[in-house]
Design brief:
By secondary structure, this protein is α+β, with helices and mostly antiparallel strands. It contains four helices and 17 strands. It binds (2S,6S)-2,6-diamino-2-methylheptanedioic acid. (2S,6S)-2,6-diamino-2-methylheptanedioic acid binds next to helix 2 and helix 4.
Length: 281
């Protein structure tokens, strides 16, 4: 049996299977099998580490349903930590090619271990057509989306991948599992969307739950935390530097006024390594 070596990692409980450029092409069907919580390893995404002609390395990510997002915030911290500790890069600051452009992680070391990763996530995209989203006018702030008779006000941001942010009074009570999938598949979003529910605790602290496109409710979403910070700052609810609280811990997000880039800082942990059979049993 041909087996594929993998490493299982997570960022705040948003978990990934990482593999080094295997000799297979059908990553979508591998993602569906390997991410499965009962029949596979179990993960919120499959990350493929590849060489790049434009950057130090290239990252591709696949959702558990096989779709390929442009970017993945928690995933790129795991990616950066793994490739550094595996000696695939020697620098603590390097470049990664993604479908959302060149992303720049910076490793924060304690001794020779990666304590945290700060990622330059690039500029948020606020043009409606870039999200992409149907309708008129940009930026998309407080757009009414009616779901089963209830009006929701969505503020939409692309961090390379699409996000629709809703501000709520109590995130614990937010109907993530019902409104999330309805908005994910809403005709307004031709590429579907990730959906964030955000409680503003104060101008420097947000509390978040997320429904991810192609994955369902997950414990954390890095690009989502960035999009939420941009949406909160744009609508005057927060400052541009905030702490985003997620179920398993915090992300520090700053939307820099100097270069318009969003910087995300958070952990990345390895859980275990193993081998996965390439053929269907
Ligand atoms: O855009 C999408 O389809 C997401 N499901 C991609 C994964 C995003 C992620 N949770 C993150 O941290 O940005 C990995």
């Amino acid at each position: 049996m041909i087996c594929l070596k993998f490493v299982k990692m997570h960022g705040l409980g948003n978990d990934f299977v990482l593999i080094e450029a295997p000799r297979i092409e059908d990553y979508a069907s591998l993602a569906r099998r390997i991410c499965h919580r009962r029949f596979g390893v179990g993960a919120d995404g499959l990350i493929v580490i590849l060489p790049s002609e434009q950057a130090d390395l290239r990252m591709r990510i696949f959702n558990p349903d096989g779709s390929e997002p442009e970017m993945c915030g928690n995933g790129i911290r795991c990616f950066a930590s793994y490739v550094f500790e595996a000696g695939m890069v020697q620098k603590t600051e390097f470049t990664v090619e993604t479908l959302a452009g060149i992303i720049k992680p910076l490793l924060i070391l304690e001794g020779d271990k990666v304590a945290a990763v700060q990622v330059d996530m690039g500029k948020p995209r606020l043009e409606r057509s870039e999200i992409p989203m149907l309708g008129e006018g940009s930026p998309v702030i407080n757009e009414t989306i009616t779901i089963e008779g209830t009006s929701w006000q969505g503020t939409c941001v692309s961090m390379g991948n699409p996000h629709c942010v809703f501000f709520v009074n109590d995130v614990e009570q937010a109907p993530v599992a019902t409104v999330g999938p309805t908005v994910e598949h809403h005709p307004l979003f031709p590429q579907r969307t990730n959906v964030e529910f955000i409680e503003v605790l104060n101008p420097t602290e947000l509390k978040m739950r997320v429904w991810e496109r192609g994955a369902g409710e997950t414990m954390a979403c890095g690009t989502g935390a960035c999009a939420a910070t941009v949406a909160a700052a744009l609508t005057g609810r927060s400052e541009r530097r905030v702490t985003v609280h997620l179920a398993a811990g915090d992300l520090q997000i700053e939307w820099s006024p100097d270069d318009d880039h969003v910087y995300m800082t958070g952990p990345a942990e390895e859980v275990f390594r193993g081998e996965f059979p390439l053929e269907e049993a």
